[in-house]
Amino acid sequence: MRGLLLIPGPTPLHPRVRQALGGDAIAHTSAEFREAFLELLDMTKRLFLSSKGRPVVFSGSGTVGLEALVTSLLRPGDEVLSLEAGYFGKRFTLLARLHGARVTAVEARGGRGFSAEELRELLARQRYRAVLMTHVETSRGVESPLPELVKACKEHGVLALVDGVCSVGACEFRFDDWGVDAAVTASQKGLAGPPGATLLMLSEEAAAYIEGRRDIPSYYLDLARWLKVMEDPRIYLSTPTTHVLLAVNVALKVALGEGLETRWRRHEMQARALQRALERMGLALVAEPGFRAHTVTAFYAPGGSAGELQGFLYERMGLYLAQGMGEEKEKLLRIGHFGNIGRREIYQAVSLLGQALRAKGHGVALEEALGGLLEELAAVPEPPA
Ligand code: PMP
What we know:
Layout: E1 4-5, H1 15-21, H2 31-48, E2 54-59, H3 62-73, E3 79-84, H4 87-98, E4 102-107, H5 116-125, E5 130-134, E6 136-137, E7 142-143, H6 146-155, E8 159-163, H7 175-178, E9 182-186, E10 197-202, H8 204-212, H9 223-231, H10 242-258, H11 260-281, E11 296-300, H12 306-317, E12 319-320, E13 322-323, E14 332-336, H13 343-359, H14 366-378
Parallel strand pairs: 1-12, 3-4, 3-5, 5-8, 8-9
Antiparallel strand pairs: 2-10, 6-7, 9-10, 11-14, 13-14
Helix pairs in contact: 1-10, 2-10, 5-6, 8-9, 10-11, 11-13, 11-14, 12-13, 13-14
Residues 8-9, 61-63, 88, 134, 138, 163, 165-166, 186 line the site of 4'-deoxy-4'-aminopyridoxal-5'-phosphate (PMP).
């Protein structure tokens, strides 16, 4: 890929991560791999800010982690509430249904996520075993107030199962302090690693529940098996994608080396600067204020031809953005701005987008957008060198 990759994952790799991917094969049974893997698990706990939780990392994408979660934590017939703010919320519902849960799905309206008040109302109406929630809904750039949602779950004694695929590593996430029961992320998003690994965090109670089950109807998605591998990585379940996992180890070092709080603040500041610039340009964002994500921004493509604009931006200008998902494919464009994406890339993206829209005959206020942007971005820390 030549040019600028600003899609909601995968996202550009740090040179040290690329270097880790370029090594020769190593044995998954070697002491070298075992050491790097145990270090990766330790860093995963630091990433989620959990000292008590049990990390599980294995080969597969975010979807695999989410499916393992519902397979291992839910039983057929369990009553589950699913908060859907877009495509990935619906997918979470589907995964739980495929594994036999009785899911009540509720959809967020417009460009909103869910508030704690809405969740409390839903929880007061019916008794559930678990709530499925997506921290950042990637298809629409919508972020929900996770700590408050988890708190509402705790008040009702309901499990909070979190899709943190598009947030962990870039957005504030405090697994222990917030009382999350289980959360999933993937290597290619906020962590800025290559795709191919899923990282889960289970509370002590959730892990104990899984370890006590003898009826998990899967081999690869059975987290009880994976928990044993985490204790002793020499146990063989299936050959790990060693290169990917070694590269994720390095991506975690880069992310934690930046400092989590600095990293969260950087993502928030650059997201806000980008979002304000797009609005000044005259574009309509999908997410309402208060629900705008720090990692991905979706906006309505002027003229409703997202595909044409996306193609033009890439082929003529080298800027790769993503279209909308599902029914919104032609309506929306999405910008991923996490990991190693920083203020320079954001400035370039706004500039190229404005020029492309002009070339396509849309009157946009590009100078207004860029004017304030430079000053705002000057205050944003640089991504890791
Ligand atoms: N959930 C969310 C919120 C996502 O953004 C994604 C990936 N875009 C997934 C789940 C699925 O992850 P993967 O593509 O790694 O399987």
